[in-house]
Amino acid sequence: MSNTDIPVTNPRTGEVDYHVPAFDAGAVAAAAARLRTHQPAWEALRPSGRAQALMALSDAIGRHGDAIFTALSEDTGRRLMARVETSAVRDWMGYWAQRAPRLLSEDSAGTSRMAPSVRWSHRLIPYSVVGIISPWNVPLLLGLIDAVPALAAGCGILLKPSEVTPRFAEPLSQAIAEVPELAGVVEIVTGGPETGQALIENADAVCFTGSVPTGRKVAVQAASHFVPAFLELGGKDPAIVLPSADLDQATDAILRSAVGMTGQACQSLERIYVHESVMERFLERLVEKARAVELNWPDPERGQIGPFIFPPQGAKVQAHIDQAVKAGAQILCGGQVEEHGGSWCRPTVLTGVTHEMAIMREETFGPIMPVMPFSTTEEAIALANDSDFGLSGAVFAGTREEGEAVAEQVTGGAISVNDASLTSQVHDVAKNSFCLSGMGGSRMGDDGLMRFLRKRAILYQSGTPSSLAIMDESLSRGSGPGDDAPDH
Ligand code: NAD
User: Fold this and answer.
1) C-beta 234 within 6 A of ligand 1
2) Collapsing DSSP states into helix, strand and coil, what is residue 281?
3) If we measure between CA atoms, which residue out of 393, 395, 391, 392 comes closest to residue 405?
4) For this structure, is 106 an active site residue?
5) Domain 5-233+442-454 belongs to what architecture?
6) What backbone phi and psi angles, to 5 degrees, belong to 12?
7) Among residues 43, 85, 187, 232, which one is catalytic?
8) Whole-prediction pTM value?
9) Across the strands, what pairs with 260?
10) pLDDT tens across 463-476, in order?
């Protein structure tokens, strides 16, 4: 099955305490071949049969919940999120089990407006093998977020979890094995970049969640293999705090979004722009709340901030802070990565930052809140849009109208008003990723399923087919171009 094993580090201890097999190209091709054998029967189950199987998988995940929890908490150092991830994927299965049969039964037939004698109907053709490559920050949820709608659409799934957090693959495979309809319909291939490359070679469509540099490679390889790639990449989400905003609510939401999951979420707020007239009061409240946040170390059942999951992450976050301070930024709280086995960082508030600093331009992926003042709304919008990314963002204002008027000018796929990172709660609303934050159809909302189905139009001629006479050049002598133009 594999040539090598990859060592996996426990982020709480900093020790390697697990190894995961790296599937080689041959093993990935064999898994894809199994999917191609079994996917037609899965598709033939129809939406309602697939919905039942998804509910059975949800139940099986429930039965294996303890083992999945242990795997996730060992890989991420988080306990609460390990529970949340497990219940979120089960909710997601319930959502698509209900939604997909309705969505796929919607009438899809009619008469052409351009050629009224032509009756049309659509057949929806799922991709046989959807390849999914997922990152380390939310391992189970991001492993399954595209897999569930793709399964509901009738596709087979070839899933490669991140080699940084692969432990859930074992208990998840056991849960999948308890649903007979899914035999040969979901294949999990563990490994690193080479396994990911082999996956792309064997997939009919690729869903990738991860960093921009890897996303570029995936897009190039998918293009040369001639398959679509749906990319969900990094972010540098801005928040704008207008003078009319409720500062208590704004600081609560910004702190939660920026430091929750240790800032290791694509939709974490990473840049904060505050109107100069409320800056002092805003900082007072933010820093007071940030100082009250505790590491969940040494007791994993206390505190709010876990360790950095990916070992090099601590050094990257520290480098962003140090570079900013060297260039003139001030630290109001936090600011120092701590080593307690793994690496940890307390919520960090910085002022005196500029857009020349990496901390305002590159994805930091840590619990860091760099705050910059603005004097006009136009300036705030320009600062928010001065970024290579366009994932999401937030606007805080006294009224819905004022907030939405600003939100609609911010570049990004989802802008929360008077809250932050709402896309992590609202999965039923379509949104795209802008700029370097992604490419391809929305993973959220109905589009999240429909993008896995190609449309085959069956076009029935109810009248008399045209003869070659309509191509006769003598028609070009007619009254004017286009009057009797042939079909094209
Ligand atoms: P990464 O790009 O390093 O790795 C992601 C996956 O790609 C891993 O499974 C890895 O093994 C695989 N991979 C690496 N090289 C490959 C190659 N050449 N071909 C195919 N696969 C390859 O990302 P990461 O560090 O695991 O995740 C963090 C990143 O993910 C952050 O940038 C974060 O913003 C982003 N992210 C985005 C979203 C979103 O929805 N937009 C959600 C979560 C995370």
Assistant:
1) yes
2) helix
3) 395
4) no
5) 3-Layer(aba) Sandwich (3.40)
6) -80, -35
7) 232
8) 0.95
9) none
10) 999 999 999 999 99
What is the C-alpha separation between 142 and 248, in angstroms, rounded? 32
- Rounded to the nearest 10 degrees, what angle do helices 25-44 and 193-202 cross at? 40
* Chain centroid offset of residue 205 CA: 16
| pLDDT at residue 2, rounded to an integer | 53
In this structure, the residue with its CA closest to atom 20 of ligand 1 is 196
CA–centroid distance, residue 454 to ligand 1 (Å) = 26
Of the candidates 393, 235, 391, 367, the one whose C-alpha atom is nearest the C-alpha of residue 309 is 367
Q: What is the Å distance from ligand 1's center to 190 Cα?
A: 14
Tokens representing 436 are: 């370097």
Q: What is the DSSP letter of 12?
A: T
Tell me the three-class secondary structure of 178-197, residue by residue.
Answer: CCHHHCCCEEECCCCHHHHH
Task: For ligand 1, say whether the CB of 209 is within 6 Å of any of its atoms.
Answer: yes
Q: Does 233 contact ligand 1 (Cβ within 6 A)?
A: yes
From the list 74, 85, 155, 266, the catalytic residue is 266
Closest C-alpha among 106, 79, 83 to residue 12: 79
207 alpha carbon – ligand 1 mean position (Å): 11
Q: What is the DSSP letter of 278?
A: G
Across all residues in the chain, what is the average pLDDT? 96
pLDDT score for 480: 52
User: Is the separation of the CB atoms in 448 and 430 below 8 Å?
Assistant: yes
To the query of whether residue 266 is one of the catalytic residues in this protein, the response is yes
Amino acid 291 reads: R
For residue 235, give the ligand 1 atom closest to its CA: 34
Whole-Å CA distances, 203 to 84, 207, 228, 452, 454: 30, 10, 9, 12, 15
Q: Domain ranges in the chain?
A: 5-233+442-454, 237-427
Domain 237-427 CATH superfamily: Aldehyde Dehydrogenase; Chain A, domain 2 (3.40.309.10)
CA 481 from centre of chain: 50
